[in-house]
């Protein structure tokens, strides 16, 4: 075995080690991120990904969004669930390339409430899905987007 | 640049604490192109968690469609002025940050 080949083999095994280590680290970081649900490209796939087969409309879910969003890159949204024992709120934008935006789990006294800002590629229906006592509920609102925000 | 900002304050009727968090993060969607026409890789916060006096209260997962420099607000029932709230996040590159705050009394 000549010297350059040995060096090459050493370099290759080092790189393999780095790749393996990197892979393991990534899997630790992403352990509780639901890739199947977030990578779904349609709303049915996203709903399935978060374990929702069907959701009942509920007037106890309030979605606060602007009717018209001038900038799709920053659309403020607040979701409040008045359903007792709300375990999670999921936010979905039907016409986004990846409809599932967020799933917020509430524990140990957190209220069924979330306030954030989201990106919308175009005008769309926004859906909030709530899980409470093992049952699923939903509400939705339409938002008209003047300038899409998926490029941001 | 400071990575995170937090404000934790009791609501007027003292029924819950209102927590507001701002994070400095690019939240790249993976769909944007740079000046050379190359796609900028996806870079976004995947999980964000909050604890109240060490007990977990919020356990959330995000997509890349949360706006750049994310804002996140939530409420904790039964919290009291002086209690500690900690918020931490992890992104898809394994970068992480956290911040904590003492809950302030309701503003009069």
Could you walk me through the main structural features you see in this protein, from its secondary elements to its overall organization?
The complex is a heterodimer of chains A (152) and B (108). By secondary structure, chain A is of the alpha+beta class. Chain A is built from three helices and nine strands. In chain A, the strands form two sheets. In chain A, strands 1, 3, 5, 6, 8 and 9 form a six-stranded mixed sheet that branches. In chain A, strands 2-4-7 form a three-stranded antiparallel sheet, with no helix packed on it. Chain B is mainly beta and 108 residues long. Chain B has one domain (4-97): Immunoglobulin-like. Chain B contains no helices and seven strands. Chain B has a four-stranded antiparallel sheet with strand order 4-3-6-7, with no helix packed on it. Chain B has a three-stranded antiparallel sheet with strand order 1-2-5, with no helix packed on it. In chain B, a hairpin with a 5-residue loop joins strand 1 and strand 2. Chain B is elongated. The two termini of chain B are 32 Å apart. The A-B interface holds A 25-26, 29-30, 32-34, 38, 73-75, 78, 93, 96-98, 100-111, 113-120, 149-152 and B 16, 20, 29, 31-32, 46-47, 50, 52, 55-68, 70-79, 90, 92, 94. Strand 7 of chain A pairs antiparallel with strand 5 of chain B.
Give the radius of gyration of chain A.
21 Å
> Globular, elongated, flat, extended or rod-shaped: what is the shape of chain B?
elongated
Low-confidence stretches of chain B: none
Strand content of chain B: over 45%
Share of helix of chain B, binned: under 10%
Low-pLDDT residue spans of chain A: 14-30
- Number of H- or I-type helical stretches of chain B: 0
CATH class of the largest domain in chain A: Mainly Beta
Round the Cα radius of gyration of chain B to an integer and report it. 16 Å
The total of helices of chain A stands at: 3
Query: Any idea of the CATH topology of chain B?
Result: Immunoglobulin-like
Give the helix level of chain A as a range of percent.
25-40%
Major pleated sheet of chain A: 6 strands, mixed
Question: Terminal Cα separation of chain B, in Å?
Answer: 32 Å
In CATH, what is the homologous superfamily of chain B? Immunoglobulins
Label the overall shape of chain A.
globular
The chain pair with the largest interface is:
A-B, 40 and 36 residues
CATH architecture of the largest domain in chain A: Sandwich
CATH architecture title of chain B: Sandwich
CATH class (first level) name of chain B: Mainly Beta
């Amino acid at each position: 075995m000549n010297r350059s080949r040995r060096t090459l083999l050493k370099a290759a095994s080092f790189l393999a080690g780095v790749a393996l280590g990197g892979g393991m680290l990534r899997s630790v970081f992403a352990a509780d991120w639901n890739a199947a649900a977030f990578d779904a490209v349609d709303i049915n796939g996203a709903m399935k990904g978060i374990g929702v087969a069907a959701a009942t409309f509920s007037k106890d879910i309030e979605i606060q969004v602007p009717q018209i969003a001038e900038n799709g890159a920053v659309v403020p949204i607040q979701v409040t669930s008045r359903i007792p024992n709300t375990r999670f709120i999921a936010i979905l934008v039907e016409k986004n390339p990846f409809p599932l935006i967020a799933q917020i789990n509430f524990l140990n006294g957190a209220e069924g409430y979330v306030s954030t800002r989201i990106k919308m590629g175009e005008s769309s229906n926004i859906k909030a899905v709530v899980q409470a006592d093992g049952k699923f509920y939903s509400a939705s609102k339409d938002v008209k987007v003047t300038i899409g925000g998926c490029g941001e | 640049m400071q990575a995170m900002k937090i404000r934790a304050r009791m609501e007027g009727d003292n029924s819950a604490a209102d927590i507001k968090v701002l994070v400095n993060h690019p939240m790249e969607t993976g769909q944007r192109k740079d000046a050379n026409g190359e796609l900028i890789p996806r870079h976004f916060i995947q999980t964000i968690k909050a604890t109240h006096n060490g007990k977990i209260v919020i356990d959330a997962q995000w997509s890349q469609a949360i706006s750049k420099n994310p804002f996140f607000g939530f409420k904790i029932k039964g919290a009291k002025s002086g209690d500690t709230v900690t918020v931490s996040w992890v992104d898809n590159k394994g970068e992480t940050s956290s911040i904590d705050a003492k809950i302030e009394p309701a503003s009069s």
